[in-house]
Structure formats: C-alpha cells, structure tokens
Design a protein that fits this description.
2 helices, 66 residues, mainly alpha
Length: 66
Amino acid sequence: MHEHRLARGPRDQRRHDEGHDEGQSFAEFALILILIAVVVLAILLIMGDDLRVWIITAWQSLFPTQ
C-alpha cells in the first residue's frame, strides 16, 4: 500500500515538476520586471532633466502651438 506512493513513475514526476516549473517561471518573470524597473529608475534619475527637455522638445515639434 505504501509502496505505490513511494514509487513514482516518469508521468507522476512530470506532473510534480510542472507545478514547480510554473512557480519558478513566475519568480523569474518577477525578477526580470524588478530589474527593468530599477534600470528605468536609474536612467530617469541620471538623465531626468535632459530627458524631460528632450521629450518636451519632441512633443512641441510634433504638435506646435500657434
């Protein structure tokens, strides 16, 4: 009775691994998003004023006010 619970076949092991892989994929995805957010924040902190001026200039060239 206990033997069949301990003896896992390839099908049972694959079912068990799928849940683990799904959680691992989510964790990796979350880490990548955090890394991207940190990089964007660093760029905004370093180039904040220059980037703001560039965006305003580009916006005004696309939509000039008269």
